[in-house]
């Protein structure tokens, strides 16, 4: 497992870390998942959850842990979550620090099933997040059925936003929607200070991307103070 920091620009703290699977040969999450057959999805999903919790606990993670889940692999939310709860208890990781996120870009077979999963997870005290928001198959329909704790802006909206009035307008609209439904926006894939400053000016509070830290294998990297000092001139809202 590799861990990438999620930062809160409001107080310049580490909000949490996203756990990202890596291949033994160094392959990315996408490369690993591409080698998983449909029949193996459920076991793969479960194994990754346990490994993420086990590793985070061993590394002494005190912030939130964001874990991706594959909705097409979750047969029954209540049954599926049992192994996660056992892992959290076994390794001493508080369940109220867990965030479960799924990508809007994944073509979900049954949106009612996904909504049921989200609602079950929320009832257990977990935070929920929709990843790649703005680039997927579900769009606003998914959001109308379930309002997650976090909306993670798709990297396509983030890239070059500082010089693109259309991306700025779209992101401003998403911010307004998020505020209305009680969701917090996270911008992922942030690579430049200019992107950060524009997104911060739009009111985005949470950030993830190479600007703040790359995924680190079996490690929890902090954000250098020098970076925050460089960003000190960014608008605070």
UniProtKB/TrEMBL annotation:
Q: Which GO terms describe its molecular function?
A: cyclic-guanylate-specific phosphodiesterase activity
Superkingdom in the source lineage: Bacteria
The record, for Pfam families, names: EAL
Show the coiled coil region(s): none
Q: Which SMART domains match?
A: EAL
| The EAL domain, residue ranges | 1-229
Query: Which CDD domains does this entry report, sorted A to Z?
Result: EAL (cd01948)
The record ties this protein, via InterPro entries, to: Cyclic-di-GMP_PDE-like, EAL_dom, EAL_sf
UniProt name for this protein: Diguanylate phosphodiesterase
Annotated organism of origin: Luteimonas chenhongjianii
């Amino acid at each position: 497992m590799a861990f990438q920091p999620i930062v809160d620009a409001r107080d310049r703290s580490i909000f949490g870390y996203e756990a990202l699977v890596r291949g033994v040969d160094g392959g990315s999450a996408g490369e690993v998942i591409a080698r998983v057959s449909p029949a193996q999805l459920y076991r793969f999903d479960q194994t990754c959850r346990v490994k993420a919790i086990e590793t985070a606990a061993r590394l002494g993670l005190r912030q939130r842990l964001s874990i991706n889940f594959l909705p097409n692999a979750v047969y029954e939310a209540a049954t599926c979550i049992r192994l996660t709860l056992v892992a959290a208890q076994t390794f001493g990781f508080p369940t109220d620090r867990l965030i479960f996120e799924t990508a809007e870009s994944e073509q979900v077979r049954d949106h009612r099933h996904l909504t049921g999963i989200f609602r079950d997870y929320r009832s257990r005290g977990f935070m929920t997040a929709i990843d790649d928001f703005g680039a997927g198959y579900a769009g606003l329909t998914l959001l109308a059925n379930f309002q997650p704790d976090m909306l993670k802006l798709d990297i396509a909206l983030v890239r070059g936003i500082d010089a693109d009035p259309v991306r700025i307008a779209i992101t401003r609209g998403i911010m307004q929607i998020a505020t209305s439904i009680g969701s917090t926006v996270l911008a992922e894939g942030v690579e430049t200070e200019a992107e950060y400053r524009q997104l911060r000016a739009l009111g985005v509070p949470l950030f993830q991307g190479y600007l703040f830290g790359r995924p680190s294998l079996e490690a929890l990297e902090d954000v250098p103070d020098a970076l925050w000092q460089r960003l000190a001139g960014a608008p605070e809202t």
